[in-house]
Amino acid sequence: MTVDRAATETFMPVAGEGILVPVETFLQAINDHGVRDYFLRYVHTCGTQAVYSAQRSVPDARAIRHAGY
């Protein structure tokens, strides 16, 4: 995904506004390597954030044992 290092920061979505871009306009924009790389980095970061969130939502087996379950 054109990234050369792991994500070291996380982000949180907040309320705000977005834009609706017609598909044709988006496809033309991503033909530009800079724009395409920007979106690929965004996708990479979203995937990384999802994995980190999933890992934190799974209870640690040691913590469960110590809790007496």
Description:
- It is a single chain.
- Helices cover about 55% and strands about 0% of the residues.
- With about 70 residues, the protein is mainly α.
- The chain has a domain at about 40-69.
- About 0% of the residues are buried.
- The mean pLDDT is about 75.
Quickly list its features.
single chain, 69 residues, mainly alpha, elongated
Q: Identify low-pLDDT runs.
A: none
Count of helices?
3
Shape: elongated
* Helix fraction bin: 55-70%
- Structural class, from secondary structure content? mainly alpha
Strand content: under 5%
Biggest sheet overview: none
| Rg calculated over all Cα atoms | 18 Å
Mean pLDDT: 77
Q: What is the number of beta strands?
A: 0
How are the secondary structure elements laid out?
Blueprint: H1 23-29, H2 33-57, H3 61-67
State the gist of this model:
The model has no long low-confidence stretch (mean pLDDT 77). This protein has helices at 23-29, 33-57, 61-67. It is mostly helical and 69 residues long.
